[in-house]
């Protein structure tokens, strides 16, 4: 039985993440040898419809194509409230709405993929620095920071957060106090957008604050065939 797939992300007022999501969906359809209409995108926030309605509408389109199995893939990097609570609730509502016409399954979130650390290492391989900071959005949900800290350790760095402590500035100060003069920052975000723009501005301000230190800013994960491969693996989990 052919499955359809809905890639779910947070949503943004900035148009760039939505464009990137469409590009990733296109890569997924190509890799799975599916019509593009069987790989869709959905968003939790900053959209006119709640996610369960987006899922229901997409399910109706795919049922009309003869598809009766829909897999929801959360493109989130850590298990915050959206992954652990919001998305499962929305999927449950959508399943109740579509009834027996469609089986809807929630797949593991992207950040849980065991191959993600290797992907990140390749991402930073071209930047030479004495110390690395993995900068994530952060969450107040208990335990949600542990995967980020584990990932930071894997790439030989330390974790910092945009919305909770420890902050980027405090981590930079700590590393400078230890004696590091070359520090690189990897934004642990899927795509460029408003937050990554703000991070770039913050890094420029830190360069002025610490003129004797070289600060490098890497790119977020971005659209690539390698990322599409990781996402594709999640549909078999």
UniProtKB/TrEMBL annotation:
**What is this protein's record name?**
Sirohydrochlorin chelatase
**What is the top-level taxon of the source organism?**
Bacteria
Q: Which regions span the lipid bilayer?
A: none
InterPro entries associated with the record? CbiX-like, Sirohydro_Cobaltochel/CbiX
- Keyword annotations from UniProtKB, A to Z: Lyase, Metal-binding
């Amino acid at each position: 039985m052919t499955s359809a797939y809905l890639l779910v992300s947070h949503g943004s007022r900035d148009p760039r993440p939505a464009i990137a999501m469409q590009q990733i969906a296109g890569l997924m359809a190509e890799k799975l040898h599916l019509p593009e209409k069987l790989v869709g995108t959905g968003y939790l926030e900053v959209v006119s419809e709640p996610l369960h309605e987006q899922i229901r509408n997409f399910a109706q389109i795919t049922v009309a194509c003869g598809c009766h199995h829909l897999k929801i893939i959360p493109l989130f990097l850590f298990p915050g409230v959206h992954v652990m609570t919001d998305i499962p609730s929305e999927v449950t509502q959508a399943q109740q709405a579509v009834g027996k016409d469609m089986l809807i399954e929630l797949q593991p979130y992207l950040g849980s993929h065991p191959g993600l650390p290797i992907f990140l290492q390749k991402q930073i391989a071209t930047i030479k620095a004495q110390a690395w900071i993995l900068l994530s959005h952060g969450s107040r949900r208990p335990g949600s920071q542990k995967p980020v800290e584990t990932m930071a350790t894997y790439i030989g760095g330390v974790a910092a957060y945009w919305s909770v402590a420890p902050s980027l500035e405090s981590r930079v100060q700590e590393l400078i106090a230890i004696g590091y003069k070359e520090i690189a920052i990897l934004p642990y975000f899927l795509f460029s957008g408003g937050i990554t723009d703000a991070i770039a501005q913050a890094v420029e301000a830190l360069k002025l604050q610490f003129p004797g230190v070289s600060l490098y800013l890497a790119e977020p994960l971005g659209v690539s065939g390698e990322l599409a491969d990781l996402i594709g693996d999640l549909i078999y989990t």
